[in-house]
Amino acid sequence: MSASYFVPTDPNPAVQAFNKKYEAKYKMAPDVWSATYYDATILAAKAINAAGSADVEKIRAAFGKVAYDGLLANYKCDADGDCNHQVNIVEIKAGQPVVRSAVKF
After folding, report:
1. What Å distances lie between residue 36 and 15, 18, 43, 94, 95, CA to CA?
2. Beta carbons within 8 Å of 58's beta carbon, 6+ residues apart
3. What angle do CA 35, 90, 40 make, to 5 degrees?
4. 18: which residues sit within 8 A by CB, 6+ positions away?
5. Strand, coil or helix: what is 10?
6. For a disulfide at 73, which of 4, 31, 52, 86, Cβ 3.0-4.6 Å?
7. Does domain 2-104 have CATH number 3.40.50.11810?
8. C-alpha angle with apex 45: 53 to 31, nearest 5 degrees?
9. What is the pLDDT of residues 59-91, one digit of tens each?
10. Mean pLDDT of the region 1-24
11. 43 with 63: CB under 8 angstroms?
């Protein structure tokens, strides 16, 4: 077993929809970085929209209030600025990674 933030075989409907769109566009399976940048882009857009400004300090302050159910986790920043409180426990079965559980902390 291992820990991973993104597993393309995760049955989560959001992950499966992302996989389908990604594979249709790029003709390959997404990896952890594809999902990471996807979530990061949406988080940044939400913070910019919440700030209502391009001012860096306002955006930084807005990040702490943004919540988003993403591909890697359900994001909600704590007082220390940690926004991801989840990791998947993965097992390889028949040569494929399978999510055994999601550890939330």
Report:
1. 12, 12, 11, 26, 23
2. 51, 52
3. 20
4. 30, 35, 38, 71
5. coil
6. 86
7. no
8. 155
9. 999 988 899 999 988 898 888 878 887 888 999
10. 91
11. yes
List C-alpha distances in Å: 69 to 26, 41, 81, 87, 99: 24, 13, 17, 14, 18
pTM: 0.83
Looking up tokens 């306002």 gives 58
Mean pLDDT, residues 46-66: 93
What is the per-residue pLDDT for 14?
94
Long-range Cβ contact pairs of 24-30 (< 8 A, separation 24 or more): 30/6
Task: Tell me how many degrees the CA angle 46-16-6 measures, rounded to the nearest 5.
Answer: 70
